[in-house]
Amino acid sequence: MQQPLLVSMLLRHAERHHGEQEIVSRRVEGDVHRCTYRELAQRSRRLAAALAARGVGFGDRVATLAWNGYRHMELYYAVSGSGAVLHTLNPRLHPDQVVWIADHAEDQVLFFDLSFLPLVEAIASRVKTIKAFVAMTDRAHMPALSTVPGLLCYEELVEAQADDFAWPAFDEDSASSLCYTSGTTGNPKGALYSHRSTLLHSYAAALPDSLNCSARDVILPVVPMFHVNAWGLPYVACMVGAKLVFPGPWLDGRSLHDLFESEGVTMSAGVPTVWQGLLAHVEANGLGFSTMRRTVIGGSACPTTMMRTFQDRFGVQVLHAWGMTEMSPVGTVCTLKANQLRLDAEQRIAVQAKQGRAVFGVDMKIVDDEGHELPHDGKAAGELLVRGPWIIANYFKGEGGDPLVCNDGQGWFPTGDVSTIDGDGFMQITDRSKDVIKSGGEWIGSIDLENIAMAHPAVAMAACIAASHPKWDERPLLVVVKKPGAKLTREELLAFFDGKIARWWTPDDVVFVDAIPLGATGKMQKNRLRETFRDHRLPTA
Ligand code: ADP
């Protein structure tokens, strides 16, 4: 049968075939909320009717500033299912960036969790296209006083509608969701996902050698729903009928562990920084995991010590995974092949340290500086190129031009990661060619930090590079050349960043040098700086 692949199919399936399956959410309001897929589907239809009643049309962007929770999940399905585009804004960004991104996306409505009221108040009068602001709560919890114009109440919108909305059918290549990445230089860029790409990605992500999800699983996505759709898990869960557990804003070790145990969580997913907090809590209190079977770790390289602790001490399998916002995001997952099961523990960890094998649908190759393909021998390292039906061809509105490289008659997306690929197909990231810093799974734009530093009257030249940090993986280190005769201290320069960026973007350290190495074209040679400061010990470490 000819049938378009639509996001609404996932919800319809979950409602009809897993209607009693549970969705448990720790709410911003402070309590634990429970509902079923059947209720989720009904409320999503009513929410879709409410969107239509407010004039949200096909292709319109509807933004969210929200934690992982059932209302956010309802928005995932109500917005995309009705043909509008779900735009998950990242609340960790500076308000100026949120305004820029909301304007660029031309968001029409903004739904937000109460935790983000101060942020919404800061941007409400500045955003150009948002016509309605909706607080994701009930009447009893609505803020008494708010400067947000015409603030609406989520539960009232849902309650006002009947449950008779029918999910429309349309072209599967229509847009379903939008996510911006500041992972490259210049303005943030939008990755627009289609219904087709989202469904194909969900099939591939759920496979046994991928994230291995089933109806027997209880999945707790720690990775935020504003990070590449929580790596696709809200879609995969409906596809396989898994129980879902949402942690809301409580991502500390104790809160997560309590939820893992009380809800019988079998699998989870998140960046290494989150698991550090969890493991510290579990180890310090002599606890364990009674139901957890495996956890997906990605976004940054998973340290082998973390793998050992999870696997050897707690019997939790680590699935090391790699991907990008531009890839929906799953690209590779590290699961062993049959011949590797015979390897000893050390050899197995060496395999698991790699980012893994391409999931079906993702093709990848590595190339040298001239674009020649390099062998898959586990030694040759080159820029990693990818292609596939859930990998972007260009950014939203053509921002940044045509990103694809084409050297064999086919378009390949350059990941900005440098890697090897071994004979068994296992890819391992060895370096990064893109000029960014990744702290606890979130990007920090080095160029923005350099521009601010250069604006200081005592600074002649500034370069910002990633320095390694035991908790955050990477933190910004500023390397500065002062103007002749100028006086400037580390503290004075760091204070200069106040208010200009999100606080957590502030560099962890400043080193003053006589000169920054420049290449033939006058560009700062950051790879040489990274080499020089490889062992730099940050005062925050
Ligand atoms: P994600 O949500 O997967 O972190 P982003 O688009 O924010 O998506 O970041 C993608 C980039 O993060 C990759 O290009 C790579 O540089 C880095 N990355 C992701 N996963 C890993 C990993 N397992 N090991 C090393 N780097 C990773």
UniProtKB/TrEMBL annotation:
Belongs to the ATP-dependent AMP-binding enzyme family. It comes from the Bacteria. One of its GO terms (biological process) is fatty acid metabolic process. The keyword Ligase applies. This is Fatty-acyl-CoA synthase. The lineage of its organism: Bacteria, Pseudomonadati, Pseudomonadota, Betaproteobacteria, Burkholderiales. Keywords: Fatty acid metabolism, Ligase, Lipid metabolism. Gene3D superfamilies: 3.30.300.30, N-terminal domain of ligase-like. Residues 12-396 form the AMP-dependent synthetase/ligase domain. GO terms for molecular function: ligase activity. It comes from Rivibacter subsaxonicus. It holds the Pfam family AMP-binding_C. PANTHER family: ACYL-ACTIVATING ENZYME, BUTANOATE--COA LIGASE AAE1-RELATED. Residues 449-523 form the AMP-binding enzyme C-terminal domain.
